[in-house]
């Protein structure tokens, strides 16, 4: 297996969000990538400029960050569909995508869908979010630092300017090479731009400390919350069903929480995030995670606070 550490640069509508193409809010104008072998050693690199077809003028912020102009892109760039086909061929079949953060893989697929070639990259896609891995390995697992911050912490020599696709791929690869193998091999991410559609495609993953479940599609949140697998509560350590002490409750439009107790391993906190597809349907991402007594109390407090606000709102409506 090879690691494909890639980075994208993209442009957006120069005239503001009101005039953007909703199907492709960010148009990719550069792909850069570094290939690492199974030992995480750099063995190759890839870079290509892409001719813009949706936004023919660079947004001022894009121009400031990447230091490119439209003349360069039009003169040296190639059409997106050709660039992607060449890139995927260069990646090879036994490849694991890696990126700094979770946005590059999303925008790659969104651009591919716009040009009608999404079938070349099947999802959901397992990948490595190196930004997250850096946080797990070096910090608290929750912080999300800039690439340059990680480069400084790891004392990586700055040989190139940041904010070009190949340079950022190279720096991301250098960060990945310095992370512990047990972290890299364990905490992979799953991109769900191409989410599970049917029950047999649903995803269940066990990580150290928590379990993640990604459901199939439903017509509504209510239909999703009626599904037994989505609302079940299991201890991620002994994998047994456990009793809920606080049933699932809504906190906002997208999130639901519950609190359950395992007689062997203690408190487990459940969270469901409802995600919307481009077609208006929904799917659920559920996590069940070991939690402390103090954090369990915070869930109780959160529920009581939501109930209090609802009562106050109803009282005000009378």
Automatic annotation (TrEMBL):
Gene Ontology molecular function terms on file: 3'-5'-RNA exonuclease activity; nucleic acid binding
CDD domains: ERI-1_3'hExo_like
Cited InterPro entries: 3-5_Exoribonuclease, ERI-1_3'hExo-like, Ribonucl_H, RNaseH-like_sf, RNaseH_sf
Source taxon at top rank: Bacteria
Keywords: Exonuclease, Hydrolase, Nuclease
Membrane spanning residue stretches: none
Location of the Exonuclease domain: 2-185
Name this protein carries in UniProt: Exonuclease domain-containing protein
């Amino acid at each position: 297996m090879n690691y494909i550490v890639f980075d994208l640069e993209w442009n957006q509508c120069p005239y503001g969000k009101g005039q953007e193409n909703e199907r492709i809010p960010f148009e990719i104008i550069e792909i850069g990538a570094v290939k690492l072998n199974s030992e995480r050693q750099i063995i190759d690199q890839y870079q290509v400029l892409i001719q813009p077809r949706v936004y023919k003028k660079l947004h001022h912020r894009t121009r400031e960050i990447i230091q490119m102009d439209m003349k360069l892109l039009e003169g040296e760039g190639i059409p997106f569909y050709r660039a992607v086909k060449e890139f995927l061929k260069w990646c090879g079949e036994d490849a694991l995508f890696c990126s700094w953060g979770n946005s590059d893989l999303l925008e790659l697929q969104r651009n591919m869908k716009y040009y009608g070639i999404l079938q070349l990259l099947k999802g959901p896609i397992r990948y490595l979010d190196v930004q997250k891995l850096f946080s797990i390995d070096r910090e608290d697992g929750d912080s999300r630092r800039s690439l340059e911050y990680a480069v400084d912490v790891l004392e990586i020599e700055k040989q190139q300017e940041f904010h070009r696709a190949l340079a950022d791929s190279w720096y991301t690869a250098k960060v990945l090479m310095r992370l512990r193998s047990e972290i890299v091999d364990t905490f992979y991410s799953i991109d769900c731009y191409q989410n599970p559609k049917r029950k047999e495609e649903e995803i269940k993953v066990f990580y150290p400390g928590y379990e993640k479940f990604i459901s199939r599609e439903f017509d509504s949140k209510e239909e999703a919350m009626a599904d037994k697998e989505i609302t079940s509560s299991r201890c991620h350590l002994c994998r047994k069903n456990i009793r809920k002490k606080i049933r699932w409750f809504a906190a906002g439009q997208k999130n639901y929480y519950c609190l359950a107790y395992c007689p062997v391993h203690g408190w487990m906190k459940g969270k469901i995030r409802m995600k919307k597809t481009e077609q208006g349907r929904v799917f659920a991402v559920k996590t069940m995670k070991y939690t402390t007594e103090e954090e369990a109390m915070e869930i109780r407090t959160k529920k009581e606070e939501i109930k209090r606000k609802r009562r106050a709102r109803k009282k005000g409506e009378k």
